[in-house]
TrEMBL record:
The GINS complex plays an essential role in the initiation of DNA replication. Belongs to the GINS3/PSF3 family. PANTHER family: DNA REPLICATION COMPLEX GINS PROTEIN PSF3. This is DNA replication complex GINS protein PSF3.
């Protein structure tokens, strides 16, 4: 399996919270038997993104915005995207953000922030790559998996 396909697969495996609108047979395989009795209307559970997106699309559940795309992280990306530790927040940050935005059709402000932050971080990566005689490990540790490549 090629590296881009692995990154895409890992992005789809990221967990997100959903609010369940109705009982969904077989869901206990993903949420565990302990929560089986709570698999009812209005119950909030964490599921892999691919499953959450499918349930959301069929109006069986409502997918919440992932924690790493919440206001605090977006504001940090607006202020100084180069210093944000994306690897700690989500190792497949941009891959997952793209998948999320494709399913949720969020507002254009979020898209603009992500594009601008990706551009600025790419420029910083390029600049540091030219200075190969310096130690950049602190910076590299902050990059998501795609940026590290």
């Amino acid at each position: 399996m090629s590296e881009p396909k692995i990154q895409e697969l890992l992005a789809k495996e990221q967990k997100v919270f959903v609010t369940i609108y109705q009982i969904i047979p077989g869901l206990e395989k993903f949420i565990g038997r302990s929560q089986l009795n709570n698999n009812s209307n209005g119950h909030r559970v964490e599921l892999p993104f691919y499953l959450a997106a499918a349930l959301d699309k069929r109006n069986l559940a409502k997918m919440e915005r992932p924690k790493f795309l919440e206001v605090e992280i977006i504001n940090a990306l607006k202020v100084n995207p180069v210093n944000v530790n994306l690897h700690e927040i989500c190792p497949q940050f941009y891959s997952f953000a793209i998948k999320y935005l494709e399913t949720r059709h969020e507002n254009s402000e979020l898209v603009e922030v992500l594009v601008k932050s990706k551009r600025l971080r790419s420029l910083e990566i390029f600049d540091r790559a030219k200075r190969f005689d310096e130690d950049h490990m602190d910076f590299v540790d902050k990059l998501d998996e795609e940026e590290r490549k």
